[in-house]
Design goal:
The complex is a heterodimer.
Chain A: E1 25-34, H1 40-54, H2 59-80, E2 97-105, E3 111-119, H3 135-143, E4 146-152, E5 155-161
Antiparallel strand pairs in A: 1-2, 2-3, 3-5, 4-5
Chain B: E1 26-32, E2 37-45, H1 50-61, E3 69-79, H2 81-94, E4 104-106, H3 111-119, E5 127-129, H4 132-137
Parallel strand pairs in B: 2-3, 3-4, 4-5
Antiparallel strand pairs in B: 1-2
The chains are: A alpha+beta, B alpha/beta.
Chain lengths: 172, 142
C-alpha cells in the first residue's frame, strides 16, 4: 500500500484540549495546502470539520465555520485561479490554496479561532452579467466576528476571527 | 461504469468533467408525479456539484406542463453559495414561463440548508416548506 500523508497514527486521534493558562495560545493548529481543483472545498471542509470536532467546538458555530471555509476556498479556486466547470484548466504553476487555523484561549476560558486562507492567484471582481455571485463573501462575513481580505500581485489572503466559544466540557 | 437505472436520474448526466462519480458528493433524482415534478437532492451542494442541481432543475422546468416544481433539500448535509446561485438562476428561468411561481423548496428544519438561505436573504425569493406533500399542495408554513 502506498504511503499517504493522510495516514493517521493512533496518537493523532482526538485528544482533550489541555486546560491552558489564561491567554495562552492553544497548541493545536491546522495547516494544509490544496491544489486549486473544484474538489478542494470538499476536502477542506472534511479536514476542518474533523479538527473542530476534536476541539469539541459548539455544533452550530462549527457548521458556520465549515461553511465559511468552504466559501473561502471556493473563492480562491474560482476567482483566484479561475477554475470553472467544463473550462480548460489554466496553467497554474505551483499555485495552491493554503489553509491555516489556530485556536486562542482568552483569560476567562473563551476560545476563538483565527482562520487564514491564502492563494497565489489574483481575484477578479465578478464580471457584469455574472449575477447571483458574491454571496460567498456575505456568508463568510456573517459567520465571522472579524473579517478581512488583502490582495496584491502575489495573491490574496482572507483572514477571519470567530466569535467566542466556551471552554470545552471538562476543561477548567 | 454508468449506474443502473440511469433513466431515474434525468438530470442531463452533466457531471463536472475530470472527476470520478464518487467525488461528485451529490445525488439528484427527479420524480415525475401527476401533480408535481419533484427534484430530490442528497449530499453536498458546492462549487463542484451545484452544476448538477442546476441542470436537473433546468430539465424539470422545461417539462412542467403546468405542474409546480418542488426541490427537496431535506437530505442535503452541506449547501454553499453555488447552490444558492443554482436556485436563483432556476428561479429566473422559471420567471420566463407563463404562470410563474417561486420554486417550492423543502427544507424542514435542516440547518445546513436553512442557514445559508437565511444569511443571504434568499428566504425572500423562495417558498420554503417542511415536507414534500405540503410543497405539492402549496401551503407554505414558513
Amino acid at each position: 500500500m502506498p504511503p499517504s500523508e493522510q495516514d493517521e497514527r493512533p496518537g493523532d486521534i482526538p485528544r482533550p484540549l489541555p486546560g491552558e493558562a489564561a491567554g495562552t495560545p492553544v497548541a493545536e493548529s491546522l495547516h494544509f495546502e490544496l491544489a486549486p481543483e473544484m474538489v478542494a472545498p470538499s476536502i477542506a471542509r472534511d479536514r476542518f470539520d474533523r479538527w473542530l470536532r476534536d476541539l469539541r467546538w459548539p455544533g452550530a458555530q462549527r457548521e458556520d465555520l465549515v461553511l465559511a471555509l468552504s466559501e473561502a476556498v471556493s473563492n480562491s479556486v474560482e476567482h483566484g485561479y479561475r477554475i470553472h466547470a467544463g473550462a480548460p484548466r489554466p496553467d497554474l504553476g505551483r499555485g495552491t490554496v493554503e489553509v491555516l487555523a489556530r485556536v486562542f484561549a482568552e483569560a476567562n476560558g473563551t476560545r476563538r479561532i483565527a482562520l487564514t486562507v491564502r492563494d497565489h492567484g489574483r481575484w477578479r471582481e465578478p464580471v457584469a452579467g455574472a449575477r447571483f455571485r458574491g454571496h460567498g463573501l456575505s456568508i463568510i462575513r456573517a459567520c465571522a466576528d472579524e473579517f478581512s481580505i488583502d490582495g496584491d500581485e502575489s495573491g490574496t489572503t482572507l483572514r477571519l476571527t470567530t466569535r467566542g466559544a466556551p471552554a470545552p466540557p471538562g476543561a477548567t | 461504469m454508468k449506474p443502473a437505472g440511469d433513466e431515474l436520474r434525468p438530470d442531463g448526466g452533466q457531471e463536472t468533467s475530470g472527476y470520478p462519480r464518487q467525488e461528485q458528493l451529490i445525488d439528484v433524482r427527479r420524480v415525475d408525479r401527476p401533480d408535481a415534478v419533484v427534484v430530490a437532492v442528497s449530499g453536498a451542494v458546492d462549487v463542484l456539484t451545484a452544476p448538477r442541481l442546476r441542470s436537473a432543475l433546468a430539465v424539470a422546468l422545461e417539462n412542467l406542463d403546468g405542474r409546480p416544481v418542488v426541490v427537496d433539500l431535506v437530505d442535503v448535509r452541506f449547501f454553499g453559495s453555488p447552490g444558492l446561485r443554482a436556485l436563483a438562476e432556476s428561479t429566473e428561468q422559471a420567471a420566463t414561463k407563463p404562470g410563474f411561481e417561486p420554486l417550492r423548496v423543502v427544507v424542514d428544519s435542516n440547518r445546513p440548508v436553512l442557514r445559508p438561505i437565511e444569511l443571504t436573504g434568499y428566504d425572500a425569493i423562495l417558498a420554503l416548506y417542511d415536507d414534500v406533500e405540503e410543497a405539492v399542495s402549496g401551503n407554505p408554513l414558513h
